[in-house]
Amino acid sequence: MAVRPSAPSVAALRARYEQRVERLTTLRHVRSELVSLAGLIGKPVLNQAGQQIGKVADVVARWDSNQSYPPATGLIVRVGRRRAWLPIDAVDEFGRDRIRLRTARLDLREVARRPGEVELARDVIDHQLVDTDGARVIRASDLYLARVAGVVQLVGVDVGFNSLLRRLGPARFRSYPTPEKVIDWASITSFGSQHGPGGTLQAAEHGLQRLRPGELADLLEDLGRTERRDLLAQLTPEQAADALEEMQEEELVQLLRESDTAEAAELLGRMEPDEAADGLRELEPGEQEKLLAAMPAEARDRVATLLGYGERTAGGIMTTVLVVATPPETIAQVRDRLRANREHDEDLAGVIVLGDDGQLLDDLTTTELFLAEPEATVDDLIGPPWPVTVTPDADLDEIAERLVETRHSSVVVVDEEERPLGRILVDDVLDMLVPDRSRFRFPRRLS
Amino acid sequence: MSDVQEGALPPPGEVASGPRRRPPARRPLRRRILVVLAFMGPGIIAANAGNDAGGIATYASAGAQFGYRTLFAMLLVTVALVVVQEMCARLGAYTGEGLGALIREQFSIRVTAFALLALIVANVGLVVSEFAGIAAAMELLHVSKYISIPVAAVAIWALVVFGSYKYAERLFLVLSLVFFAYPVAAFLSHPDYAQAGAQLIWPHFLATKEFLLLVVALIGTTITPYMQFYVAAAVVDRGIGPADYPGEKLDTVAGSIFCNIISIFIIVATAAAIHVRAPLESAKQAAQALAPVAGRFATQLFAIGLLGASALAAAVVPLSTAYAISEARGVERSVSKSFRQAPLFLGLFTAQVFIGGAVALIPGNLIQLLVQAQVLNGLITPILLTYVLVLANRTSVLGDAANGRVFKVVATTSVVTVAILSATVLIQAVLSGFGIA
Predict the structure, then answer these.
(1) H or E element: which one contains A407?
(2) Where on the phi/psi map is residue A43: left (φ > 0), alpha (ψ -120 to 50), or beta?
(3) Interface of B with A in 230-259 (CB under 8 A)
(4) Is the CB of B117 inside 8 Å of chain A's CB atoms?
């Protein structure tokens, strides 16, 4: 029903006005609590007596604390030409435009980097971060700190343009927070832990768990080299493998190249064989051998077989993950088997029915299985529609044509004795037919 | 029977001998083509972008005005270009980030803003010159620039935003291959080899204002700021990493040298074809250099090449500016997104195309406008080169791949030389503005 919004009533206007007032009050309140990191840099550090002893050079936070909001552990203070370490315990007032110490005296210690700690102004502001809520890569324009329950914590990231302008402008306006587009730090995945053996943020990992493989793949493609490796390290191996399957081929190849062999081989082993083969195909023969050798034996055999086929032929496109059944089995048994293979669900369009000599008898779609009685046998279901088959050397056009003719969602690849080798899903064909237009690509070559 | 059965495949050892298994014939063939085409990597494409409308006009102008005398300057420019492009490709390969992002991460916000502003100014100048190139080409084919520029601007904008640019791009690339006719033209026009060779190798300089201005234009068109951003971003875009870097280095170095050889031939061919040593007046005059190849069709041939090169760059230059800025800002940079999703990227692209087109419409001498845009680029080049140099020197960015001691000296010398030349031109312009010089 298409209802045009009528002119807003007085009540609606009032409600909107109240909302706005409330929002502004919250904003003012939040604003008064927030300390802008960019604004704090260069501000005076005062002792108890109010004498200036130095200027703030950076704020150090601990990444590996298992908390959603990383606590600040100390400040780096510039005293004359020296950079000195000031533990956060020594700070009495953590203000927007000054830091006041608890003591009159301060013993200046050398700045020593401890594992798991990051200098926020040097390593985080202006660098890449992942916003897991929005599933995107961002660059921090500013960071906001706040004292919560006595602990100074990193609470938010500003990605707004106003913050950039504020930082560009004169210094005296710089410390006034402009929280216009702020992301809660709890949904941020950060990098920079590579400087030490410190772990990663547990809470951020939970954020990463929520992302779909496709989103993760986009994130990986957008990140710089070190950040990318950092993010991969924070993913579970299964998640990483799923994400890699969704990546652009050339990005995947690059990632395989820069990872060390054992890691890359593990990821490849967990990927669907056809996607793994696509990645390996683009590598130099030497690198290919090395990775294949390091893969688990079962996965290696599958991938190696796929590599034997041409890239744009049925053999090169198909997945070799097939769930098979024999005529005497019951539907319930087959369903259990499908359930057991849930990890491959994207590649399972049906169940292959094999005869005694390993020949393809039928291809039961999941719908057929779903509608059948659990007690029925596979034999009962054999019948039209008959499976659509192609040979491994069929080219893309032929496969597409067969799919269009028959309106099936997948074709079965068989050898000349009608034994099934693999399956091609309609989305595999789609991937190859649709030109890649995901972003501005720099002109390649004449082709 | 196992749950998930492998298709009834023979064990891997037998695969190759199976009756129906074709040997993977595609692969080696494709490899071989790739090896040949590797020559068309990001390095050569970026360097070739130097031979756009502004490039052709500037090289032709150099040949017409000073004969072979700018050849030695071109030799120096080539060295500087190789050094600079190599650093940019290396930065892209080792960090996986473009120059825009690297500058944002490594410099303070104000210094970053300055660099990006300089890039925008230089590139808007370039876009103007690309549209001037399109106009000059169409005027040779008897189409008024008041028709050709608006049509071209709208067409290029629509092609990019609505996504069929990829095919147009190939057409433009093929058209611009016309300029490979220059070396042939140079040989056919029987240049004075002895003089050309001597001017190329013998270090010399003319201490006139015009010569200096032209040398800065040559620098500006050959070591364009846009090319540095382009090569780094393209290396990242293509997923070239440290492992492939040796190949990419070869591509960048060979590409830079190759394209400058073409440029030198443009100067030689024009110098041999035009005997009156004066600034170029029109594109028609410049086209005469192709007469030894195309005879009376020289004008048409030149127009086709100029159109292709200009149209190609008129889309790519604004796109890569938008890319660099969006990358530094950390927002979406994709042509497949809508204006709502990628406002900065598409907004910057749109603004550049239309501002560029509008400025090119201002009445005046198109060829001279082209050369002036290159002077502007030449003035800005040393600013951005300094950033590149600082980045490539930092071990915190590149680790072991940072500039070594010898490379540092060569690179610094190149940048300083370019900077001194640009500064001289700038000071001269300011002084003459006050009526002193």
Answers:
(1) none
(2) beta
(3) 230, 233-234, 237-244
(4) no
Smallest CA–CA distance, residue A411 to chain B, in Å, is 14
Nearest CA to B356 out of B109, B120, B179, B181 is that of B120
CB A126 within 8 A of CB A192: no
Domain A202-311: give its CATH code: 1.25.60.10
Per-residue pLDDT of chain A (447 residues; tens, 9 = 90+): 444 555 567 777 788 787 777 766 666 666 777 888 988 998 999 988 888 888 999 999 887 767 778 889 889 999 888 888 888 888 888 888 889 888 777 777 788 777 778 888 888 888 888 888 888 888 888 899 988 878 888 888 888 888 888 888 887 777 777 777 788 888 888 876 544 334 444 445 567 777 888 888 888 888 888 888 888 888 888 888 888 888 877 778 878 877 778 888 888 888 888 888 888 887 877 788 888 888 888 888 888 888 878 777 888 888 878 888 888 888 888 888 888 887 777 777 888 888 888 888 888 888 888 888 888 888 888 888 788 888 888 888 888 888 888 888 889 998 888 888 888 888 888 877 776 555 556 654 433
Give the pTM.
0.78
CA–CA separation, A278 and A307 (whole Å): 8
* CATH 2.30.30.240-classified regions of chain A: 38-193
Residue of A nearest to B40 (CA): A445
To which H or E segment does residue A13 belong? helix A10-33
| Cβ–Cβ gap B330/A312 under 8 Å | no
The CATH topology of domain A323-432 is CBS-domain (3.10.580)
State whether B239 and A251 contact (CB < 8 Å): yes
Give the B window 368-427 contacts with A, CB below 8 Å. none
Residues 6+ apart with CB under 8 A from B31: none
- CATH of A38-193 among 2.60.40.10, 1.10.3810.10, 3.10.450.50, 2.30.30.240: 2.30.30.240
Give the domains, in start order, of chain B with CATH numbers: 41-433 (1.20.1740.10)
Task: Tell me how close the Cα of B236 comes to any Cα of chain A, in angstroms.
Answer: 9
Closest residue in chain A to residue B322, using alpha carbons only = A440
Question: Residues of A numbered 267-296 whose beta carbons fall under 8 angstroms of chain B's beta carbons: which are they?
Answer: 281
> Do B410 and B429 contact (CB within 8 A), yes or no?
no
Which of B8, B174, B331 lies closest to A420 in CB terms? B8
* Chain-chain contact of B335 with A437 (C-beta, under 8 angstroms): yes
CB contact under 8 A, B109 and A304: no
Pull the structure tokens for residue B308: 């292709």
